[in-house]
Here is the input.
Amino acid sequence: MRSIKFMDHDGTIHDGWVFENQVGIVQGDIFTEFKRDQATIPMSEIKLLPPVAPSKIICVGRNYPAHAKEHGVEVPKVPLIFLKPPSSLITNDDEIVLPPQSKQVEHEAELAVIIGKQGRWITPEQAKEMIFGYSIANDVTARDLQRTDNQWTRAKGFDTFCSLGPWIESDINPLDSLITCRVNGEMRQMGSTRDMVFSVRQLIAYISSIMTLMPGDVILTGTPAGVSPLAPGDIVEISIEGIGTLRNKVVSQKE
Ligand code: ZN
Here is the structure.
């Protein structure tokens, strides 16, 4: 199933599901019990919202050896984690806003894991039960500020710096999914989740040994090599096999 959140023409927010180019309302709680209305609303008549409202967005740094190498750093021995604020979330077709504080904002194409259950001290063996589905993320990063700051909250935390969507796909193979990122049609990143240092199961086990995971929480699993700067007017398209394509336009901060 493809799950979304959307706003209808009256401004009401719904959980929904997508079948081909049509949307249906989901009644109930997507994480526990729900029923789906027929998908009869054309995609063009709704406004997509970020597909979940997470209590937290947990990100993993340097989880692909080739990306660690391009920044001249070692692959970590345990997962390197940081947080992005939920206020940084946008979704498909929203604009990524370049803040005036940075001269080098870059895309990071990543597989996002959406948590479906509350859990702490989850073992790698139990981890699959915690997963609601998968989505596409752009972990937008102010690279110059990441270099100057010891903590990455500023570099990773600006509004619009976490694009997520367009939907959550309940069933993909996270062990080997192709990830690509194109800017203005030109290929910048191509990798596969098979190259992750720590697998999705290992990440869930590690993170849940630190903090309680909640339904709707999002884990960004790291980016393959090929990150590059964004400029106003750029169109960034991230595709993940089995999910789809997340597309955003880049604009500069309005005065
Ligand atoms: Zn990242």
User: Anything to note?
Assistant: The chain has a mean pLDDT of 96. Residues 2-49 form one domain. The CA atoms of residues 106 and 229 lie 4 Å apart. The two ends are 41 Å apart (CA to CA).
